[in-house]
TrEMBL record, chain A:
Described purpose of this protein according to its UniProt entry: NDH-1 shuttles electrons from NADH, via FMN and iron-sulfur (Fe-S) centers, to quinones in the respiratory chain. The immediate electron acceptor for the enzyme in this species is believed to be ubiquinone. Couples the redox reaction to proton translocation (for every two electrons transferred, four hydrogen ions are translocated across the cytoplasmic membrane), and thus conserves the redox energy in a proton gradient.
Lineage: Bacteria, Pseudomonadati, Pseudomonadota, Alphaproteobacteria, Sphingomonadales
Subunit structure and binding partners: NDH-1 is composed of 14 different subunits. Subunits NuoA, H, J, K, L, M, N constitute the membrane sector of the complex.
UniProt gene name: nuoN
Name assigned to this protein: NADH-quinone oxidoreductase subunit N
Ranges annotated as spanning the membrane: 6-30, 37-57, 77-97, 109-128, 165-187, 207-230, 275-294, 301-322, 328-349, 370-388, 408-427, 448-468
Enzymatic class: translocase
Length: 487, 205
């Protein structure tokens, strides 16, 4: 094993680890007064990790040169593309978090540090080519996430969110571990490529059990139905920047991880897991759409929206082809932008005293009181619904195109029909903003970082985003090809 | 002889594992758990992993289980309340039990249909010839799996940060501290103010 080469491959992770540890020391001596500086430094280190991960995506790195530490870690174009999304989303969280927590007097220096360590865990997850690496990355991310959810410890809802997330997350980890131990027992190895060799031919019952348990455990982590129950409660209770984090980065990481396990480890057994993925995808789309209808809290609504979107992402995986994985990555990228944009818009919902407002009814008549915010939010909602001129449509289009190419017309038809149900509640939000009597609660001013972030997201989501499609498509194709290639 | 020992240890592990979840008194549960650990250590000795066996006893029995015992004793559990609502939840519990049993039967059936062939590890996983248990574990932990070992260290660090973030509170003074030097240095013109309020107006201090 060549340590120098391995360390060069884990450069983004090393940057995050070292900056996390140094910032922890700064926090220990500087106290909460240093939290602003620590937030900036953490965002800079995420930017550095982003820059280090980018070259591998552009060159489409693949093959044995991307393996680090024997068979434990793989920094190919696929992993690095996912890392870019994760680091960008985590960076966006660090931009909005200080204003939110300072506003309620709860800003503490540990928040940005935990975000950095969570991002580190996620980047280990997407690079995992071994069940052990997978589990370590997942737990590193989850442990940081539990604390981020309960960060407002004096707020009952935040504490409840943290506890719920912890109990259900621990249960999911247990299920995942049980599946992993079965897979290890029947394959005799924890390495994905070794598993792929072991599962050729007929799948034994024990292996199938392991596969299903692993799928169930990972479905918890991406909040796919029927393992989605925790999502609305946790998303509503957690502090809004944390919710924004949960809805963006960990989704990317867990979906990318799921796709890698399925394609690298069980690539020869597509029929065994495809039906499970299809069932989870359709259930997620339908439950996400129906569950959102009665909601009165915008964060709960966005939670159901994320369940709904995970369904579409899983449809890309169900195709189990290079086009399908590429479509899944494109959808993920667009989804991250839309989610970050929506949550920044939610963070800009402030009353005259600068307190956060979360009710959907408070949005009434926003078009007359805050026309800019209403226009951007309407655009994001239309984009989430997948209405054509906006970029959200492109994600749904490529996913369904991939499924049709894989001869799964029925799945595409049901998916498209279900996406119409979803459009209902997105449009309802727009209707409340534009056609209802002004409620007059949202009067607070926003600040420059929020608006800057919101306009970047809005610009990408707008029809201008289509200028990105050739470039994004090329990167995603390269990444998907690097995943499918037998090392 | 080995076979007899194996069945004895295995039977005790299973029996005490069952008693851990069956006994009504949580303190008894922990004690049964300790017995299960001991017997598992015995099984490890039988397969030649004596270092792991000692570690299990030192770490799990010596530290973890005793810690459990402390926690359980401090919980102050109301036993009457624990029994209430048992009948209401019994059908659900029974259903779960039946499902788990069915899964177990299936699992065993699967195992019998295509049983594992435990070969000698080769390649990377091959043990170092003539080296002891500890050397073998060390070679894997600090060689092949050093990345995971370090990452696990960060997990522990994050857990520690989390515990501190969620529980540590700045000690705020509940009473004002008396500063005698400041008291003595206080002068009348700093302490008293002469105001002439307008009629009907309040005094602003």
């Amino acid at each position: 094993m060549d340590y120098a080469a391995s360390f060069a491959l884990i450069a983004p992770e090393l940057v995050l680890t070292i900056s996390g540890l140094v910032l922890l020391l700064v926090a220990a001596w500087g106290g909460d007064k240093a939290s602003r500086m620590i937030s900036i430094a953490a965002a800079v280190s995420l930017g550095g990790a982003f820059a280090l991960a980018a070259p591998a995506v552009c060159t489409g790195a693949t093959g044995l040169d991307t393996m680090a530490f024997g068979d434990l870690f793989r920094a190919d174009a696929y992993a690095n593309l996912a890392k870019l999304m994760i680091f960008a989303a985590a960076g966006a969280v660090l931009v909005v978090a200080p204003r939110f927590f300072t506003g309620i007097g709860e800003m503490r220096a540990e928040y940005p540090i935990l975000v950095v360590f969570a991002a580190l865990g996620m980047s280990i997850m997407v690079s995992a080519t071994n069940l052990l690496t997978l589990y370590i990355g997942l737990e590193l991310n989850s442990l940081a996430a539990y604390v981020l959810a309960a960060f407002l410890r004096d707020d009952e809802r935040s504490a409840e969110a943290g506890l719920k997330y912890f109990v259900l997350g621990a249960l999911a980890s247990g299920i995942l571990l049980f599946g992993m131990s079965l897979v290890y027992g029947f394959a005799g190895t924890t390495n994905f490529m070794g598993i792929a060799e072991a599962v050729q031919g007929d799948l034994s019952t024990g292996m199938l059990f392991g596969l299903i348990f692993m799928l169930a455990g990972l479905a918890f982590k991406i909040s796919a139905a029927p393992f989605h129950m925790w999502t609305p409660d946790v998303y509503e209770g957690a502090p809004t920047p944390t919710t924004m984090f949960f809805a963006s980065a960990p989704k990317v990481a867990a979906v990318a991880l799921l796709a890698r396990v399925m394609m690298e480890g069980f690539g020869t057994q597509v029929d065994a897991w495809r039906q499970v993925v299809i069932a989870a995808a359709l259930l997620s789309i339908i439950i996400g759409a129906l569950g959102a209808i009665g909601q009165t809290n915008i964060k709960r609504l966005l939670a159901f929206s994320s369940i709904n979107n995970v369904g579409f992402i899983l449809i890309g995986l169900a195709a189990a082809t290079v086009t399908g994985i590429s479509a899944m990555l494109v959808y993920l990228a667009i989804y991250v932008v839309m989610t970050v944009g929506s949550f920044v818009a939610v963070l800009l919902m402030r009353d005259a005293e600068g307190n956060q407002v979360e009710g959907i009814s408070d949005l009434a008549g926003l078009s007359t009181t805050r026309p800019a915010l209403a226009a951007v939010m309407a655009m994001l909602m239309f984009s989430l619904a997948g209405i054509p001129p906006l970029f959200g449509f492109w994600g749904k289009f490529v996913v369904f195109e991939a499924v049709v190419q894989a001869d799964m017309l029925a799945l595409a038809a049901i998916g498209i029909a279900a996406s119409v149900i979803g459009a209902f509640y997105y449009i309802k939000v727009v209707k409340i903003m534009y056609f209802d009597e002004p409620a007059g609660t949202i009067t607070g001013e926003g600040d420059t970082p929020h608006w800057a972030l919101l306009f970047i997201c809005a610009a990408i989501v707008s029809p201008l985003g289509y200028l990105l499609t050739p470039w994004l498509g090329e990167l995603a194709d390269g990444a998907a090809a690097s995943l499918m290639l037998p090392a | 002889m080995t076979v007899f020992a194996f069945y004895m240890f295995a039977a005790f592990v299973i029996a005490s594992g069952a008693m851990t979840i069956l006994s009504r008194n949580p303190v008894h549960s922990v004690l049964w758990l300790i017995l299960a650990f001991f017997n598992a250590a015995g099984l490890m000795v039988l397969v030649g992993a004596e270092f792991l066996a000692m570690l299990l006893i030192v770490v799990y029995v010596g530290a973890v289980a005793v810690l459990f015992l402390f926690v359980v004793m401090m919980l102050n559990i109301d036993f009457a309340e624990m029994r209430a609502g048992f009948m209401k939840n019994a059908p659900l519990g029974l259903a779960v039990a039946v499902i788990l049993l069915a899964e177990l039967v299936l699992g065993i059936g699967a195992y019998r249909a295509g049983r594992l062939e435990l070969g000698t590890p080769t390649g990377d996983a091959a043990p170092i010839a003539g080296a002891s248990n500890i050397e073998n574990i060390g070679a894997l932990l600090y060689g092949k799996y050093v990345f995971l070992f370090e990452a696990a260290g960060i997990i522990l660090l994050v857990a520690m940060i989390g515990a501190i973030v969620l529980t540590h509170r700045e000690r705020r003074a509940t009473r004002g501290h008396q500063n005698i030097a400041k008291q003595n240095a206080r002068r009348p013109d700093e302490a008293t103010v002469n105001v002439k309020p307008e009629y009907g107006q309040g005094v602003e201090l």
